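RETRY 2/3 - previous attempt timed out on the joint model. Re-submitting the same 1074-residue input unchanged.
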Amino acid sequence: MNAHNLIDLAELSKEDLDELIQLAGVIMDNPLNYMDDCHGKIIATLFYEPSTRTQMSFQTAMMRLGGRVIGFDNPVNSSVSKGESLKDTIRVISNYTDVIVIRNPYEGSALAASMFSKAPVINAGDGGHLHPTQTLTDIVTLWYEKGRLDHLTIGLCGDIKNGRTVHSLIKTLSKYEGNRFIMISTSQLQAPQYIIDVLEESGCEYSFSNSLEESISELDVLYMTRIQRERFASQEEYEAQKGIYVLDTQKLEKAKESLKILHPLPRVDEITVDVDYDPRAKYFEQAEYGMYARMALIVKMLANNSQKQLPPKIESTHNEMCRNPRCITSTESYLPNLFTTGEDGRLVCSYCEHELEK
Amino acid sequence: MNAHNLIDLAELSKEDLDELIQLAGVIMDNPLNYMDDCHGKIIATLFYEPSTRTQMSFQTAMMRLGGRVIGFDNPVNSSVSKGESLKDTIRVISNYTDVIVIRNPYEGSALAASMFSKAPVINAGDGGHLHPTQTLTDIVTLWYEKGRLDHLTIGLCGDIKNGRTVHSLIKTLSKYEGNRFIMISTSQLQAPQYIIDVLEESGCEYSFSNSLEESISELDVLYMTRIQRERFASQEEYEAQKGIYVLDTQKLEKAKESLKILHPLPRVDEITVDVDYDPRAKYFEQAEYGMYARMALIVKMLANNSQKQLPPKIESTHNEMCRNPRCITSTESYLPNLFTTGEDGRLVCSYCEHELEK
Amino acid sequence: MNAHNLIDLAELSKEDLDELIQLAGVIMDNPLNYMDDCHGKIIATLFYEPSTRTQMSFQTAMMRLGGRVIGFDNPVNSSVSKGESLKDTIRVISNYTDVIVIRNPYEGSALAASMFSKAPVINAGDGGHLHPTQTLTDIVTLWYEKGRLDHLTIGLCGDIKNGRTVHSLIKTLSKYEGNRFIMISTSQLQAPQYIIDVLEESGCEYSFSNSLEESISELDVLYMTRIQRERFASQEEYEAQKGIYVLDTQKLEKAKESLKILHPLPRVDEITVDVDYDPRAKYFEQAEYGMYARMALIVKMLANNSQKQLPPKIESTHNEMCRNPRCITSTESYLPNLFTTGEDGRLVCSYCEHELEK
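RETRY 2/3 succeeded.
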């Protein structure tokens, strides 16, 4: 693995991903061989918004490698509440630790952190933008449950419009040959144009469905997500449709024996509890695969990290500033303005990937 | 020790208890022999309500065994606040850890957790119901301070009506021969009928007293508890009686030299601070015994736990549902209805031990 | 090092300080030699008010020595909120741990804690009173950045009146020969009389300045601190002066090449971010030196600590009680009244060092 940080899963090549998948499996089969692998090493889990699930997964991964964990989960208790900049926090804490895991509600915050960190940075969720270790978890689960990442018919069900984990999964799996995507949702919550663009470009087959019941028999993989009441135009519409996107044992009767059901968790009621006892339900195992995926990632990152060093200063590429209010640049004014030029010639913010509005 | 989980101390035989007591002593005498006993192992302390004392005691116990700790103490920060069920949290976290320690304000919550956990579960307090490791702490303290658990005159002072630790201690010590209980309290806060039933059945001598001063000279053990203002019918009655249940050096003058004073802590003002310097005061040592007791428990549990496995699905035994609003079944609707039939033929909820009202 | 606790840096001799400085350097050069030095040991970080920076520095220090950490950072979640006294908390937790690190908003709280602790106590900040490990950090930074602690011209800039870290640094550096202090501030925020007394007694040269720009060229060391709007008599005065105490690259042009800039952090805007890239800026390195300083302190303290023992009971020296509302004695009524007699014959509280008002 060549990457120093993990900000966006798209930065990893298929070879990098394959390396991580293989290593996760080796650790899973021989956990005792790795129990002291990170002895004497420390990761910091800096959670500017709470996410117990993700934080515990990283903590456990590091502890199962024999390493130590510092961090916070409560921005109110941190120096942040005294008005300290992200930069200063990262400069100080990267002196203490060997890896920084950051979750922050602002888009591009992990990239910003990586500019000031002597230690490698892992993005554990930057607002609605990216959450690469969730997708890594999904990929590792698929590999060990299906034996392959290609030639799969993948159903994605629920909120395809807003779900960052769904977008990231589509982007990643569309790089593998022969995959076919069925996006099961209401018309309001269907895939955004940029995801359609990704699919078009990849050459993968894809289709839309508004019925889980009708589509389920075709699927090798069913990726369920939460669908939130507030996403619907009216209460009536929600009531009318909500049953369609609840997976229950009745709908499962039509599914293949070899189907694997995934869910990023936490679930609310989009999968009924009796499905948990169906051998095709893999969402709890998925959480365990996530732990091994994160162990593999930490091992690789620490193997890379020969000498802790402050990254060189980056200068602004443009005078314009991003105007996305959820972009990290909107709160951390010292950050350089960084843009790339999109296909249509418009500027795209390197932090949040929003197009600069004219 | 045969038990896989520790939900209720009553599940342990006298032989099990004796094993734990002996092991606590061995660890106390040779802590260095155990400092790496749990190397590579993890416990999760899931505290749905804060209890710094109990949580730190478990954390320290695991760390002194060379193991690691994950967990939370703040339900607001946890996935719980996103509406995740207890079941899903336990399913995920029991993938990460080797033992789960749970504290939850609902009665029966630890039993419920154990139904979905691949790892053994320790009940660290389920509402006003049970708190078995506190009683284990008390028993270990008595054994090493008195040299025996039988033929003791035990004074229990304060709130005997509501104190779950007092009930559990009476239930446990009444199994040993020749013990005699003096319950020192106001008439409003005296022992409930079911504790009297336990004592009657055990054949132990017992009596009631409303004066600590009058009873103290007879005691081998004095177990003090907090007595709360709000438990009294009126402010006058509280004022009139409160001094009677405060242990001070003057009252101690009448006590035996061999008396041992215990208190589950935290105390408020029911023991004056000058008593702390009396060699008979053992409540701070008790906290230390509690650490060794928990170390012994963790060692035994991990020795048992050969292969992590999901428990088999449990089906409802009855159609009725428990109506106790503090029972875990009142918030976690997927739990099976489980009842046993009491002596009078009424149904008793297996989670909270409340009788089902007709 | 002879001291059992570290409550006040003034308790350490120059030899003690030198020992700590040298050891910090040895650890810095050979961290792997110390990675298991505290294997099997535990520190407790009891933070009655949050200070993520300081707490993480201690946690990291202990973890880099192979030890374990328990503690809290949120008094709301702790037994404290159930009305437990400081004494009881310390009695219990000092049974669990090998060192106690305490931060508490009341002045003298660390001294009070040390009276009831079986384990050595480190003061991590007791209100506006003392914060010895910050000064230890400053001293270690100076030694390794300047190569000496004497014959330095030290500029202290910002709030010299209220800054406890500035006072402590002056007190410590005034013990070394040939140091010269320039206190750069507004007249309202200049050094208090007792600091002037310390300087007079030490024989060190000192002067006052109200312009950073004018004084900067003379300095070997510039110690910046936060200057708070609310300290000024009026908004106008703040606006008029605030730029004077902001360090920017323009002011730095007049400074020596060998200048070293320190800041206890977190900064707000008293140093502009472009200064961070100047090689003279050492405030982020200072945080790293702080970690090594704390590692050295913990190693020394644990080496001292042969047998854990409760300190002997201390009796009041006087009947009078301290009347400082921020003194720990104002909330913990069981503490003995302890006073020393100052030079003018007035009584000085041993906890908070306030003179007893007649």
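Chain B touches chain A at residues 39-40, 42, 44, 68, 70-72, 74, 76-80, 82-85, 87-88, 91-93, 95-97, 313, 334 (CB under 8 Å). Closing ticket.
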